[in-house]
Design goal:
The complex is a heterodimer of chains A (about 270) and B (about 270).
Chain A lengths: L1 E10 L9 E9 L3 E5 L6 H8 L7 E6 L2 E2 L4 H5 L2 E4 L11 H11 L14 H14 L14 H13 L5 E5 L7 H18 L2 E5 L11 E6 L2 E6 L1 H6 L14 H18 L1
Parallel strand pairs in A: 3-8, 3-9, 6-7, 7-8
Antiparallel strand pairs in A: 1-2, 1-4, 4-5, 9-10
Chain B lengths: L8 H21 L2 H26 L7 H30 L2 H6 L5 H29 L6 H26 L5 H18 L11 H9 L1 H13 L6 H4 L4 H28 L2
The chains are: A alpha/beta (about 270), B mainly alpha (about 270).
């Protein structure tokens, strides 16, 4: 069953001379781990913003869980969660206050003025999630006093607390150290396996997409490749040195972009 | 992590409004300088502007100008502080925190109403500051009179916030928002009868005063405070029912339009 369907999506920003997203089509199956890759300015964040209902499209059709993102935006938002490229935290609040606010927005728990007054289930859930991503010590400290990595981890907890059916990860590990990255992916894989959460990932760390179910490569607002990582690797004329190693997804990614650039220059 | 149940839409909307109110109050407490400014503002407005007007303009009016001005300043402070609070939506946009609210499955109206009612906390603190400064100047209200103003505060703040949303919804940077707040609040202070009686206004000034929402909020408050007094007819301009109807109508229209502009400007880029 397709949980995300995008048909001929076009987005041209006000005042822009050309579209940032130009006739993009792809689909994502329920429970799939989907990587949406591309260089800076390719149209990844624009596409995610349209899928998450925070940006209007110019034309095309986009549905999430069978709901039109333009006509039924509020219901679409019930099905999704996002970790965006730019942190969306209230820096004047503590980490826990940010989570409490999020839980109240999603109607999971009524907002109470302090953590101690919150229901037992909320306290257990937050404590458990904080331990998993390693921010227990920072849970009650103001966000502005925390590192970028800690803020990222907090966003992860926050986005997962309402157990979305589709989780959009827009460069989620940007600014995280290697240990935190590993910890995050272990956790996201656990969530995916346990709840069948569909993951829509954009990243510049191509190795993070090695184990995805499907790769969609966008360049200059158009889809350059759509298929499995293995298919992507098979289509390249890679000549590894030394010859004992196999091409990685990153090798295939770079070659596809170079090929796409050459094609565009010829055109 | 447990799979969470899907809550009802009504609960989610109410929960959102309450959470945003609590957030605004929490942020106010965490910013002592903002709270301090809320108390300094009445010293400037009530103590200096009001004091000067009382000393130089009070003669020959036929009513106690001090009380007239105190009520005007209290309502003006509610309008001013609420407008400033609503303007922090621009800060939320600049800090990307607005995305957290806009991506949640809640109505934009709940977000805006929560923001306005949350701003009411700082507005009431500012209003209390005005009352204290007034007391130092020898102008006082009785407890029932104060409670009556307090009871009308939510309606006044909603009206102020709705007016501010008309402008703030279209603005995306802090500097422009500050200018907008000044443009919203200053003309109202002088043209809606907060500190200068407008019962004799005519021409374009009369027309403007009838468009400004604070005119009706002020008149409503004064109709309650001056009820049964000999000064009522020389101070109160409209039947209280007219003031309530005008305030509610202006609030609803501005709130709908302002929220529509806000949602559209966030999405249509």
């Amino acid at each position: 069953m397709k949980v995300i369907e995008v048909n001929n999506l076009v987005k041209q920003y006000n005042g822009a001379k050309s579209p940032s997203v130009d006739g993009v089509s792809f689909s994502v199956e329920q429970g799939e781990f989907f990587a949406f890759l591309g260089p800076n300015g390719a149209g990844k964040t624009t596409t995610i913003s349209i899928l998450t209902t925070t940006l209007s499209k110019t034309s095309g059709e986009v549905t999430i869980a069978g709901l039109d993102v333009a006509k039924d935006a509020r219901r679409v938002r019930e099905h999704i969660g996002i970790i965006s490229q730019k942190p969306s935290l209230d820096k004047s609040l503590t980490a826990e206050e940010n989570i409490r606010f999020h839980a109240a927005l999603y109607g999971l728990y009524g907002y109470r003025p302090s953590f101690k007054l919150m229901p037992k289930a909320y306290k257990e859930q937050v404590t458990q999630l904080a331990e998993i991503v390693g921010i227990s010590d920072a849970l009650f400290k103001p966000i502005k006093k925390q590192s970028g990595g800690m803020q990222r981890k907090l966003e992860i907890i926050r986005s997962l607390i309402h157990t979305p059916e589709v989780l959009f990860l827009d460069e989620p590990t940007q600014g995280l150290d290697a240990v935190s990255r590993r910890m995050l992916w272990d956790y996201i894989n656990t969530v995916r396996k346990t709840y069948g959460t569909t993951i829509f990932l954009t990243t510049h760390y191509i190795d993070e997409a090695e184990n995805v179910d499907k790769v969609c490569l966008i360049n200059h607002g158009k889809i350059a490749f759509n298929g499995s990582p293995e298919e992507m690797k098979r289509q390249i004329a890679f000549d590894p040195t030394p010859r004992v190693c196999l091409p990685s997804l990153e090798d295939a990614y770079i070659e596809f972009l170079q090929l796409d650039k050459t094609t565009m220059e010829v055109a | 992590m447990e799979m969470t149940r899907r809550p009802s839409r009504f609960f989610r909307e109410v929960s959102t409004i309450w959470a945003i109110i609590c957030r605004e109050i929490s942020v106010a407490f965490k910013s002592p300088s903002t709270l301090a400014m809320s108390l300094v503002m009445p010293i400037v407005m009530m103590g200096m502007v009001g004091g000067n007007l009382t000393q130089n303009m009070a003669g020959g009016l036929g009513f106690d100008f001090g009380l007239f001005m105190l009520i005007g300043m209290m309502v003006n402070m509610l309008f001013m502080a609420t407008s400033q609070g609503v303007a922090t939506l621009v800060d939320d946009h600049e800090d990307n925190f607005s995305e957290e609210m806009l991506i949640a499955p809640v109505s934009r109206y709940s977000i805006v109403v929560g923001k306005i009612l949350g701003s009411m906390f700082s507005a009431v603190v500012t209003m209390l500051g005005t009352l204290i400064v007034g007391a130092f100047m020898g102008i006082t209200l009785s407890v029932p009179q104060f409670l009556a103003i307090l009871a009308l505060s939510p309606l006044i703040c909603l009206s102020a916030g709705a007016l501010a949303m008309l402008f703030i919804g279209l603005i995306k940077n802090r500097k422009a928002a500050n200018i907008a707040v000044m443009l919203i609040t200053m003309p109202q202070m002088f043209l809606s009868g907060a500190i200068i009686p407008i019962t004799s206004s005519s021409g374009i000034l009369m027309v403007i005063s009838r468009i400004l929402p604070m005119t009706y909020s002020l008149d409503l408050v004064r109709s309650v405070i001056y009820a049964g007094t000999a000064e009522y007819s020389s101070i109160v301009m409209f039947n209280p029912a007219v003031s309530v109807a005008a305030t509610v109508a202006i609030t609803v229209v501005f709130l709908l339009a302002g929220t529509f502009f806000y949602a559209r400007s966030e999405k249509n880029r």
